[in-house]
């Protein structure tokens, strides 16, 4: 097994199909998908919040978390994160259209 760190991200939606984003206490482009680094494997989770529970920060590294419409993403956010969220939303939308 490698000593390299691997990233993990979670895609969590509410019943209005808004994406959960977190605001980090570090970095200049600090809104992103919830996730982190690990020396294990790389995971991406897709989840759905059907009860519309309000998210709450779970560590000092998270200043705020909220569900965001793809058309109203918070700032600051990097171009990479913006494009990744647009791509993920498109994939999620395609998934829901098959149900």
TrEMBL record:
<protein>
    <recommendedName>
        <fullName>Nudix hydrolase domain-containing protein</fullName>
    </recommendedName>
</protein>
<dbReference type="InterPro" id="IPR015797">
    <property type="entry name" value="NUDIX_hydrolase-like_dom_sf"/>
</dbReference>
């Amino acid at each position: 097994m490698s000593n390299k760190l691997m990233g993990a991200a979670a895609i969590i939606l509410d019943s209005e199909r808004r994406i959960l984003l977190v605001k980090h206490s570090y970095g200049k482009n600090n809104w992103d998908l919830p996730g982190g680094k690990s020396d294990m494997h790389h995971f991406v989770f897709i989840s759905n919040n059907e009860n519309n529970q309000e998210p709450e920060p779970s560590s000092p590294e998270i200043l705020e978390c909220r569900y965001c419409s793809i058309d109203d993403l918070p700032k600051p956010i990097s171009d990479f994160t913006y494009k990744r969220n647009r791509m993920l939303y498109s994939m999620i939308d395609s998934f829901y259209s098959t149900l």
